[in-house]
């Protein structure tokens, strides 16, 4: 009866297979049960709204269609066509004054001035607001008390108040047949359904970004989050980057790891095979291959491996006043110089071994020699020349002598080498200038693509699951995990986190691996 009243039906005939219901309404039977009395009263009140209303009792054989329809409705509504009108009654009609799944409209909202102008011609007192209403009104029409907006793409769009709008957004975004899509897809679908309100994109964004499922499975942005910070070295062999490579196939003595260190300015590489990796072996490597050859460095960059941040290497660095800088987890760009060198060494060894898997230790020195005698970057200087002031003689120059080899004079060679050592400082300065200009140009290009994103203390964030491995990383697993609270902020884009119960999380996490959490 409520559905028929909504459709403005004036004459309604109801056929039921219950003799009790039909005869109680027609006055043949009396309703003694209290609940039946309430139902009878409710039907009588609704019957007043029709010009003709009657209930007729029929046999069950003539009521099969209605009986089958009621059974189907008890299972699902999805297969019904649009011409079948339904109302889902979650509580008994006699227990509430008005039972309906529709959301009641608010008294005052953005539609009120437009409705009053279209209905009564009433305008706001403010002249500016009055002009706005007059300009907007032609795009709207009022039909049976419901406001519609004229659409350029199809039928008129029903206007919704804020409460109705939020309900529609939630249903389209996370309802039974929703995919937790983004705000653009949700707004487009809502308009195709035939709804409208002025702040659709803003409201959809506000509701959707708080959805837990949407946040956990949101795609990972590849755009940089923080400007590039070039590493500048005040003098040669001042700053070194160190990293571990492996495991390789076991060689003589069971060695299968490789520790690699590179000087940031000269690009000079030191490497040593290791059987196992520990803080003691890293300390011995730095002492023998860096300190004893090039002096005590000012700073060493490394990842957060226990070999670098734990003892005895960490205490030994403090004794020598060597500053340790640890890069953020899953952010190898911060140690890019060493990562690129590791890649080149690995590719060089594989190329020299071809299909053989043994003998990589014998090829290591050859690969390092090639690296030391190859010009690097925009400076066009080899690490060997920046180290000793002169270019090295390679085997090709011996097999086919160049002019330099042909004009070699042993008596004057020693003196010329000393002159080159005197001039090596100028060569290094020119190389430093070229490198600084190149780094500035690269940083300028990189920073154009940066989408600045920073967090403040006590902000809630999600952490990229691929970086933390806190959850499984299968096909159906979330891309983000958390939540965490920011407890430390660095100007380099790194943050320290803590769980919601206050337990600090080890190591720093770059903004590239974090995402703001909305609750």
Detail the topology: elements first, then pairings.
Blueprint: H1 2-6, E1 11-16, H2 19-26, H3 34-47, E2 52-57, H4 64-75, H5 112-120, H6 127-136, E3 140-143, E4 146-149, E5 157-159, H7 162-174, H8 183-193, E6 195-196, H9 200-208, H10 212-216, E7 239-245, E8 257-263, E9 269-274, H11 279-294, E10 299-302, H12 306-309, H13 313-319, E11 323-326, H14 336-353, H15 360-372, H16 383-388, H17 395-399, H18 403-406, H19 410-448, E12 460-464, H20 465-468, E13 480-489, E14 494-499, E15 509-510, E16 514-516
Parallel strand pairs: 1-2, 5-6, 7-10, 10-11
Antiparallel strand pairs: 3-4, 4-5, 7-8, 8-9, 12-13, 12-16, 13-14, 14-15
Could you walk me through the main structural features you see in this protein, from its secondary elements to its overall organization?
The chain is of the alpha/beta class. The protein is 41% helix and 15% strand. It is built from 20 helices and 16 strands. The strands form four sheets. A five-stranded mixed sheet has the order 9-8-7-10-11, with helices on both faces.
How are the strands of the largest sheet arranged? 9-8-7-10-11
Task: Assign a percent range to the helix content.
Answer: 40-55%
Q: Strand pairing plus helix content: what structural class?
A: alpha/beta
Give the rounded overall mean pLDDT.
Answer: 83
Q: Tally of extended strands?
A: 16
Q: Strand fraction band?
A: 15-25%
Number of discrete helical segments:
20
Termini separation (Å)? Answer: 42 Å
Largest sheet: 5 strands, mixed
The stretches of 5 or more residues where confidence is low (pLDDT under 50) are 97-104
C-alpha-based Rg, rounded? 39 Å
Shape assignment: elongated
């Amino acid at each position: 009866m409520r559905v028929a009243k909504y459709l403005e039906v004036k004459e309604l005939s109801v056929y039921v297979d219950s003799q009790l219901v039909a005869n109680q309404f027609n006055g043949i039977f009396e309703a003694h049960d209290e609940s039946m009395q309430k139902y009878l009263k409710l039907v009588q009140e609704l019957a007043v709204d029709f010009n003709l209303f009657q209930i007729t009792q029929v046999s069950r054989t003539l009521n099969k269609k209605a009986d089958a329809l009621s059974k189907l409705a008890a299972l699902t509504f999805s297969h019904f066509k649009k011409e079948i009108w339904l109302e889902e009654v979650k509580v008994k009609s006699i227990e509430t004054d008005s039972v309906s799944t529709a959301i009641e409209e608010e008294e005052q909202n953005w539609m009120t001035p437009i409705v009053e102008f279209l209905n009564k011609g009433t305008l706001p007192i403010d002249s500016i607001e009055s002009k706005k209403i007059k300009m907007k009104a032609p795009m709207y029409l009022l039909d049976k008390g419901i406001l519609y907006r004229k659409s350029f793409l199809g039928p008129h769009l029903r206007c919704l108040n804020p409460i109705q709008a939020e309900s529609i957004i939630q249903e389209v975004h996370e309802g039974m047949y929703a995919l937790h899509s983004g705000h653009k897809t949700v707004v487009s679908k809502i308009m195709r359904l035939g709804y409208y309100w002025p702040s659709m994109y803003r409201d959809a964004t506000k509701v959707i970004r708080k959805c837990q499922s949407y946040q956990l499975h949101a795609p990972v942005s590849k755009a940089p989050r923080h400007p590039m910070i070039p590493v500048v070295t005040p003098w040669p062999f001042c700053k070194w980057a160190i990293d571990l490579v492996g495991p390789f196939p076991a060689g003589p003595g069971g060695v299968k790891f490789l520790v690699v260190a590179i000087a940031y300015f000269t690009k000079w590489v030191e490497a040593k095979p290791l059987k196992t990796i520990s803080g003691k072996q890293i300390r011995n490597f730095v002492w023998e291959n860096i300190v004893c050859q090039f002096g005590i460095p000012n700073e060493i960059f490394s990842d957060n491996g226990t070999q670098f941040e734990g003892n005895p290497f960490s205490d030994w660095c403090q004794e020598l006043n060597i500053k340790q800088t640890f890069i953020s987890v899953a952010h190898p760009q911060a140690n890019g110089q060493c990562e690129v060198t590791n890649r080149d060494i690995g590719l060089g060894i594989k190329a020299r071994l071809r299909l053989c898997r043994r003998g990589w230790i014998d090829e290591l020195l050859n690969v390092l020699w090639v690296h030391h005698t190859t010009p690097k970057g925009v400076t066009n200087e080899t690490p060997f020349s920046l180290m000793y002031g002169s270019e090295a003689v390679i085997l090709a120059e011996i097999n086919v002598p160049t002019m330099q080899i042909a004009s070699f004079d042993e008596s004057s060679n020693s003196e010329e080498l000393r002159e080159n050592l005197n001039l090596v400082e100028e060569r290094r300065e020119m190389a430093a200038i070229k490198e600084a200009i190149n780094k500035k140009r690269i940083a300028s290009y990189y920073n154009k693509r940066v989408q600045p994103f920073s967090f403040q203390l006590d902000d809630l964030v999600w952490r990229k699951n691929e970086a933390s491995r806190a959850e499984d990383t299968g096909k159906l697993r979330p891309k983000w995990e958390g939540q965490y609270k920011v407890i430390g902020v660095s100007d380099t884009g790194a943050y320290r986190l803590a769980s919601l119960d206050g337990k600090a999380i080890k190591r720093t996490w770059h903004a590239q691996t974090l995402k703001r959490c909305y609750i």
